[in-house]
Q: What sequence folds into this?
């Protein structure tokens, strides 16, 4: 187990990670109140509101049967107020009670509980409790998978949010076994594509291919970061790295935009420098998957929509990350 990061570092990472997860994957906005930056009167008002909500909730608990449906909304209001004030331990306990109550009345996999899970995620992130965050991200996807058909936007959102979380966790070193996790989540995307049976909308299918591409890049990045990942003298089976160039988009008046691989001036191919951990395989998988995603969203007859623009922007950012990684970590390594 890696040593725990300090609370200051955890909060800094959470501040960067929460908006990425909630905005990039679901369109939701983080709602955390930052008491240190708020005027005293705002803090006092929120403290008073928490006191009032707590008093109301205590009265309802005394008046109603245990687990009564009418407790859920007051429990959520109280938990959100605690969260806004940064009292995350108490907020987690309150959201947990609301979630348990919700599930007892609406079932284990009711999708309306996703909003409660997102609030729990926000507080666990703020506390740097990354293993719990990981469990909750998987739980979000399981809820959607059990309830919604393959191809449903909410189901795809849940898997893409899990994917983005794995990418951020690997980037910041928050979890162990990032390579294993990347393989497992990429397999979930492949399974979703199989279940859709080629009947999904182009944007929906493209999101799964984008997820597979980004996870392949994660694996290549993690392996290059290992000091012994590329080189001689390891005793492991060796294979050529292969030929890889930067990916660029071409435009023309007679055809949709296309991706091409520019092998000059930055390209690498050598039988002397060898790839002992199949980094080249991950790079090849990235290129294949991102090309599929790019082709789908740039089909000439695809209507413009907010989701289409969002997926196109995600592909653009992914290509920038790939090209930057290829230039800095692979091509200049030899």
A:
């Amino acid at each position: 187990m890696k040593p725990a990061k300090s609370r200051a570092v955890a909060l800094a990472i959470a501040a960067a990670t929460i908006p990425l997860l909630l905005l990039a994957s679901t369109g939701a906005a983080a709602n955390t109140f930052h008491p240190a930056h708020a005027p005293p009167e705002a803090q006092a008002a929120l403290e008073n509101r928490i006191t009032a909500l707590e008093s109301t909730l205590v009265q309802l608990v005394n008046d109603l049967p245990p687990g009564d449906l009418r407790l859920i909304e007051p429990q959520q209001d109280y938990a959100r107020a605690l969260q806004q004030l940064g009292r995350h331990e108490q907020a987690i306990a309150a959201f947990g009670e609301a979630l348990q109550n919700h599930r007892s009345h609406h079932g284990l996999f009711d999708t309306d509980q996703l909003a409660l899970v997102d609030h729990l995620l926000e507080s666990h992130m703020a506390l740097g409790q990354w293993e719990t965050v990981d469990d909750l991200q998987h739980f979000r996807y399981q809820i959607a998978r059990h309830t919604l058909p393959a191809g449903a936007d909410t189901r795809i959102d849940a898997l893409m949010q899990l994917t983005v979380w794995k990418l951020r966790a690997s980037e910041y070193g928050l979890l162990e076994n990032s390579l294993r996790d990347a393989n497992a989540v990429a397999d979930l995307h492949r399974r979703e594509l199989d279940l859709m049976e080629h009947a999904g909308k182009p944007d929906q299918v493209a999101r799964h291919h984008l997820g597979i591409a980004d996870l392949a890049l994660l694996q290549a990045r993690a392996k290059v970061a290992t000091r012994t990942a590329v080189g001689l003298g390891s005793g492991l089976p060796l294979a050529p790295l292969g030929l890889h160039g930067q990916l660029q988009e071409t435009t023309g008046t007679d055809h949709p935009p296309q991706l091409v691989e520019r092998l000059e001036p930055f390209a690498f191919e050598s039988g002397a420098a060898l790839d002992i951990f199949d980094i080249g395989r991950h790079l090849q998988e990235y290129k294949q998957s991102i090309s599929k995603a790019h082709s789908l969203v740039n089909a000439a007859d695809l209507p413009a929509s907010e989701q289409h623009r969002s997926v196109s922007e995600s592909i653009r950012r992914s290509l920038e990350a790939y090209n930057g990684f290829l230039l800095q970590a692979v091509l200049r390594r030899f």
Summary: The radius of gyration is 23 Å. The first helix runs from residue 7 to 26. The chain is about 65% helix and 5% strand.
